[in-house]
Specification:
This protein has one domain (12-150). It is built from 7 helices and no strands. The protein has helices spanning 2-34, 39-44, 46-49, 61-88, 95-111, 127-152, 159-172. Helix 1 runs antiparallel to helix 6 (127-152) and helix 5 runs antiparallel to helix 6. Keywords: Membrane, Transmembrane, Transmembrane helix. Residues 158-168 have a biased composition (Low complexity). Residues 154-174 are annotated as: Disordered.
Length: 174
């Protein structure tokens, strides 16, 4: 049980990085396509509010917050797979499973689930922007893993590392 909760905690961090980064890309692309950075995120709220959600271009709680919450929850779902994969292969590079999970998310989002449950971004974004969105998602998963490894990695500021280095220098001194 402890291992599952650790995977879930790591997935929460990974999902946050992936969700924020992909939402940033979606917002930039949505702004270019519609003049509003909120349009594509709002479109995700079609899960709750139907197709009229894609025509809302202003920031509001009903569409923007709901759209982001749906995207973040979906990101957490996919991050669980990513972190479970990384748990089984802890020494592997972080980016191959991130790309695989992002590709799987795209396939499920647009080729498995009914249109009613698609992310909705596609209502405003073209192919290159969609590719950038899923690439940003993969990058966010990878970034979370990289940040986590930096936090755990020993550094020169640690007393044990400094004392060992000093002892080696003294042993070599004539």
């Amino acid at each position: 049980m402890r291992q599952a909760s650790q995977v879930a905690l790591r997935a929460l961090a990974s999902a946050t990085c992936a969700s924020v980064l992909s939402t940033w890309v979606v917002s930039l692309a949505g702004r270019k396509a519609t003049g509003s950075a909120a349009s594509a995120t709002n479109a995700t709220s079609h899960w709750l509010w139907g197709e009229r959600a894609r025509r809302v271009h202003r920031v509001d709680v009903r569409h923007t917050v709901a759209g982001y919450a749906i995207h973040h929850a979906s990101s957490f779902f996919w991050a669980l797979f990513y972190e479970a994969w990384r748990e089984r292969r802890p020494r592997s590079r972080a980016w191959p499973p991130a790309l695989a999970v992002s590709a799987a998310a795209y396939l499920v989002d647009y080729h498995v689930v009914p249109r009613r449950l698609t992310p909705g971004f596609e209502r405003h974004l073209g192919g290159p922007a969609m590719a950038a969105t899923y690439a940003a998602f993969a990058l966010g998963l990878t970034l979370a893993a990289a940040l986590r490894s930096r936090v755990r990695a020993p550094g020169p500021h640690r007393p044990a590392a400094a004392s060992n280095a000093g002892a080696r220098r003294q042993a070599r001194a004539p």
